[in-house]
Amino acid sequence: MHEEFLDSIILTVNLWEVTTLKLKKNSLYIAAIFGAFSVSSIAENHGRSGDDTGSGAVCEGFGPQTPRDIDSMNGENKRVFTMAPSYQEMNLCNIHFHNNAEHKAKDFSIYAGEGDHGHGGGYQCQISKSLSKAELMPPKGEVCKGLKSGDTIEVHWVHSSCDIKPGEGLGSCLSESCANPDLRVETQVFTVVNDRSAPSFDELTYQGNLRNGYHQAKALPNNTGDPVEFLGSTTGPKYTEQQCSPMQVTWSVRPQCGKVDINSLGEWCKDNVFNEDHAHGVRKLVTNPKLLSKIK
After folding, report:
1. Most buried pick, 23, 133, 268, 294, via CB within 10 A?
2. What is the rounded CA–CA span in Å between residue 163 and residue 171?
3. What pLDDT digit, counting tens, does each position of 237-292 carry?
C-alpha cells in the first residue's frame, strides 16, 4: 500500500487544527496519520526509498509491518488491533500498483533483486517465465511510464471506513471528521501480457460505482485463491525494518498470480480519478518475526 508520506505533517495538522479537537494527548499519532496520508507525501514515499540501507537496529514499539511472505504463518509482534470490516462494508478510496510484487508467495517468488530506490526489486510471478512470444510483444507506445509486457505488478485496492469518495493519494482515505479510519487493502499480483483477450484492468477499476451505498471497484479478482488476511502496515520503499511505518492496516492478499492486458492498463494510466500514471516502488520484504503478525 502506497508510499509517499511525511512531508506536510505540520501543514496538515495546522490546517485541520487538531488541537481544537481536544486531541492533544494524541497529537504525535494524529500528526503521523495526517502526514502519512497527505497527497504529496504519499506520492513521494511510494516512489522514493529511505536513506536506510537495511542495517542497524530493528524498529521497536511499532506494530506489525508489511510486506511479508504470506506462505509463512509465523509472527511475534505483540501489537494487536481489530481486523477491518469486509471491503464490501467500506469505501474504496484509492487504487495504485507497484513495480513487481511487494509480497512473496509460492506463485510469486522469483527474486528480482534489490532494485533501484524500490524500483525493479521485489518478486516476480512464476508464470512470467513461460509466456508466449505474442504475450511478450511490446505494446504500441509507452505504457504507464515504462511498463513492459512480461512485467509483474502488485495492485492495491485501498478501502477506508470513512465516509469519503475515491481520489488521489491515501489522503483520500480520511477526512477532517474521520482522522483514524479502519483501513483494508485488497491485493492481487499480476503478470502483464500483451493480449486483449486476457482480463482487462478496466473490469477492476472504479468509475463511480456504488454498491449498498459504498464506493466500490467494478469487481475484484475471485479466481486466484482464497485471500490471506493479516495485520500489517503501509508499504513503499521509504520503509525498512529499521524505519517502520506507524499505520495500522488490514491486508488481504490473493496467493496466486493472474494475467492482465497491458493495453487496458495503459488506458487506465491515461485517465483515472486517482491520477495514477506509473508503477510505484516496493518495500523490501519484512522477515524479522518481531515485526510480523501471526497469520491465523
Report:
1. 268
2. 13
3. 999 999 999 999 999 999 999 999 999 999 999 999 999 999 999 999 999 999 99
Domain limits, the chain: 53-291
| Distance from C-alpha of 162 to C-alpha of 171, rounded to nearest angstrom | 11
Strands 249-253 and 183-193: parallel
Neighbours of 14 (CB within 10 A): 12
CB 160 within 8 A of CB 93: yes
Strand partners, 3: none
Q: Round to whole Å and give the CA distance between 109 and 59.
A: 26
Beta bridge partners of 259: 191
What is the SS3 assignment for 161? Answer: coil
Q: Is the pLDDT of residue 86 over 50?
A: yes
pTM equals: 0.86
User: CA-CA distance, 9 to 16, in Å (whole number)?
Assistant: 11
Residues in Cβ contact with 134 at an 8 Å cutoff, skipping those fewer than 6 apart: 194, 195
Type of residue at 292: L
